[in-house]
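Q: How would the structure tokens look for this protein?
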Amino acid sequence: MSEPVKIVVAEKISASAVSQLKEPGWVVLTSDQLDGRLSAELESADALIVRSAVQADAALLSHAKKLRVIGRAGVGVDNIDLDAATRQGIAVMNTPGANAVAVAEQTLGMMLAMARHLCRADALMHAGKWEKKSLQGTELRGKTLGIAGLGRIGMEVAKRARAFGMEVVAHDPFVSVAVAKEQGIRLASLDELYAAADYITLHVGLTPQTTGMINASAIKKMK
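A: Here is the predicted structure in token form.
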């Protein structure tokens, strides 16, 4: 009789996602069952699921004698050592687009909070103060949003920004002018984006090319 497939879910994911993993003959070990024994449990695991907190680096993967696949419940794979996984014959997968709408809505929520000083307003109200004039804020309508990265999330952000009446400027060397134009987006270089944008949002993977994309020099170029 063959051994059951063992899946280690190293971080908390939704209950519905866990239920999808519970096939007959499969053993699913969730994060609240690990109790600090991740390395030990990986020795007999066939699959590992992570999000952002767990670093699946070479040291951790050295314990994974049977591991065949690592799945990341997220867009990037920057917390997974791809070289170490490749050396051990472990496939690495992620879930691009799965959280695109949620992230896009969060992005607009953060922009609204900035425009309307919501965090400061909350703190003042809790302090028993009413400073209405200083909290007037501004509208998003008519402002320019700069988007670095027009993947699934970037496109969802652009749709919502345009619904707010914003102009959208974006930088993505892998998106054609025609595709951007269909969505009402103007493509530009990074320097042009910095100069035009009232708000900038990044939706790119962490790579040597994107590290430090927004720095002090870039901020100085913003209007």
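The chain has two domains: 5-93, 100-221.

The two ends are 68 Å apart (CA to CA).

Upvote if useful.
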